[in-house]
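Schema walk-through. Below, the input block comes first and the output block second. Nothing else is stored per chain. Lengths vary across the set, and this one has 119 residues.
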Amino acid sequence: QVQLVESGGGLVQAGGSLRLSCAASGSTFRINNMAWYRQAPGKHRELVASISSGGSTNYADSVKGRFTISRDNAKNTAYLQMNSRKPEDTGVYYCNADITKWSRQYDYWGQGTQVTVSS
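--- output ---
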């Protein structure tokens, strides 16, 4: 079984910075794409940023230039550096990983971490 564990959420003032981490644990797996999603109160879950195993990145228009996704393949960990936070960035942030295990692909989600930006 593979588990994704997020950390780094919390309360930050507008304009501040925060870094989220997502660590994958388990055995005998390969991580393909990793991504961060967020869900604001009363809204659907939306993609924030994604990164391929080779390091190619993709961002939602609303976070371009402010957020940076990265990964450390040796540690099976992805990061989301969030700068210049805005109140509309508030929500639960979920880590997602596309994982190959025993030649089969699986989609895993973390439990989510709350991020609140105060104005």
